[in-house]
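Hi everyone, sorry if this is the wrong subforum. Our group has a chain we'd like a structural model of before ordering constructs, and none of us has done structure prediction before. Sequence below.
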Amino acid sequence: MTSGHRWELEEEATALAREGDFGSAGDTFVKASFEEAGDWFGSNSWAMELRILFKACLCYRLAKQSRQCEFAAWLGIDLAEEYAERAEAPPTPSHPPDRAQRGAWHEFVGDFRLIAGLDGVTDAYEQAKDRYEQAGNPTAHYAEGPIMSSQATFSTVVLVADVDYNYIRESTQGQLTDWVEYKQEYIGQFIDQIIASGEWKLPEK
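Answer:
Right subforum, don't worry. Here is the predicted structure as tokens:
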């Protein structure tokens, strides 16, 4: 397995989504997520895996395949909670601490709960904000690693919804807690707009 193959699968899934074959697009995004999980190891790869899995959930929502959406969402939740637990473990020489990144995993839990219509969305986002505050609440604009992947998930929703690109720019103008609150305010309504439109408007590249 190679990262190039994951990119190919992700591009294939995006093309299927743009054509309106949302069920197949969701299945292909799941494959791409699994490819990422099997190809690499570490927090950046874990976050990318979750970012792609969220796209699968969005496709299943568009396909009106609620069972598949819930299955993919619960998989994402279980993985994100596992990664959150690992992030809370004492640091080692091969895994130095990055306390801010702990919040990203709870963000993903909130994102998956939201996309699948599950309870606990607000609690997950509050846990994310709590972890960011414990880490000194860094500036959102300079986020890296898993936090950047979480931000990319919001960017995907903005682009697929075909709303003003400034929502992406404005989302990271404050601290990380501000970023979470901004996402909470808009992501749900943008997802609703996507489902109502029945279209995937994200550019191929």
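For your construct planning: Residues 66-88 form the longest helix (23 residues). DSSP finds nine helices and no strands in the chain.
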